[in-house]
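Recall the central idea of this unit: under ordinary conditions, the amino acid sequence of a chain determines the structure it adopts. In this exercise we apply that idea directly, starting from the sequence alone.
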Amino acid sequence: MLLNLLQDPISLIGFLLAIIIGITVHEFAHAWMAYRLGDYTAKYMGRLSLSPSRHLDPIGTLFLLLVGFGWGKPVPINPNALKNKYDELKVSIAGPISNLIIAFVFSIPIFIANEFGVNFLENTTLLIFKIIIEINIILAVFNLIPIYPLDGSRILRSLSPSSWQEKIANLERSGPMILFTIIFFEYILGISIIFPIIMTVQRFFSSIIAIIITSVIDLIKIIVSFF
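Accordingly, the structure predicted from this sequence is:
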């Protein structure tokens, strides 16, 4: 993947920006939500920050460049500092939601430009925006997979009954090995396991974003037409 990006400077710029913005905001969202819910651990460790250097993980970033998905430095969370039953769920899901918000925000200028007959494929800035949108949706979907250390694992644990907690904890210990095994099958052996699922969900979220923005633009047109 990295070799392909090096052959296309625009795609490389878009991909790097997507990684920097996506991972930084994703991890900041975890830290901010934890802080808001009473856990100051991330704040004291300097993670309540929008500085990329605080959040980019060397191995996770390398995987993003090589295979198309990866992760940032996990934000430290103290469950004992959280007050309510579903606070850990809120902290865990904040990251993926932030990536979807990024995708939504960067989609707006593309749809506005389209209304004026500007094709994003013919505009460098909009093309970079399109890459940022796609990568951030992929980051959101990938992190929702219930395999430790991804956010989906914490979400699963938060939603599971207490009788499942020990089994989930045992599964989490094997999580990194399971994740690396899946990536090995995907990119070394060429056996697709999770990538088709990620792309299917990515298309679903892209469609939802398109419907929302198009509906808002149509509503604005209707309102303007009355004046």
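The mean pLDDT is 86.
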